[in-house]
Amino acid sequence: MDLNLKEIEDISKTLYIRALKLLPDDVKTGFDRLLRDETNDTGKAILGTMIQNVAVAERTRNLLCQDTGIPIYNVMIGRDVSFDGAALKEAIRRGCERATHDHPLRSSVVHPVTRFNEHTSCGLRVPIINFDFDEREETVDIEMIPKGSGSESGSYLKMFTPADGIKAAKGFIIDRIIESGGRVCPPTIVGVGLGGTSDLCMHLAKIAATRAIGSISADPEGAIIESQLSKAVNELGIGPQGLGGRATAFEVHVEIAATHITLVPVAVNIQCHSARRARAVITPGGIAFGV
Amino acid sequence: MTHHILTTPVSEDQIRALGVADTVTLEQTLFGLRDATLIAMFDKDRRTKLDLRGHAVIHTAPNVRKVEVSQEAPAGYEPICIGTTTSMRMERFTRALMLREGVRVIIGKGGMGEASLSAFKEIGGVYLAIVGGAAALQTTWIEAIEAVDFDDLNPESLWHFRISGFGPLLVGMDSHGGSLFTQVQNDVRSRRDDVLAALGAED
Question: Is A165 on the interface with B (CB under 8 A)?
Answer without folding.
Answer: no
